[in-house]
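Continuing the series of single-chain predictions for the mutant panel. This is the parent chain; the variants come on the following pages.
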Amino acid sequence: MISVNTNTASSMAAYNLSGTSQQLQRSLQRLSSGSRINSSFDDAGGLAVSMKLSASIRRTEATQANVNNALSLLQTQDGVLKNAEKILTRLSELAQLSSDVTKSTNDKSLYKTEFDALTSAMSALAAEEFNGVSLFSAAGTQINVITSEDGGQSVAINLADLASIATTAGSIAANISTGAGATEISTLDTAIQSLATLRATNGSQQQRITFAADMLSINKVNLELANSRIADLDIASESANLARLNILQQAGTAMLAQANMAQQSVLRLLV
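Parent structure:
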């Protein structure tokens, strides 16, 4: 049947060309963005999963920053405790020197002057802060560091009780001017042992925080890999698809022109 009003071949060619053009536009968009999913139309389910994975990645990055800040706090705390160790060592030395029977009262008074200055320095160390957060507090005080992006895991950090150690050391200051004895030296040994315990605890907490930071890094990599498999584009595959669509578009354009030209054959029957 030859018809003038309806050109089915032209309509079908136009329909196919329109579909090819849409696919070509989406292919160009994917290649220009590097993403397989640029709208919900591309992959509705994949987009939903990718959104959740992307949010988890961002939370993991934020958790990493928080954990690293907590590690910095512990490192700062240990730096202060190291200075406290030097002070206690000197206090122990002064106490021993003051027990020398050959030292005069004036000599021992000078020892006490230095002893008092160092105990004041110890008390000042106990008031140190990190970004406004106290590094030291009463025994048993803790702060919890979230170590997982879902908030389900945490590590407790002890705020060491340095003030009590400073108080213990300062309690024997009055005896230095008259000569420290076994009791005073024993008291300082106890303070040194307590400080050693604080530093050991700090070290173990740094190790725990470091392991948590490492695990967050591993989790982030795995989340990024999972998201990449869903959202990222296979450039090689899409480039081949683009070449195919370009050929189809050119062929479709040519066939549409041919379909439109076919109607002109009707004129031969009318002449």
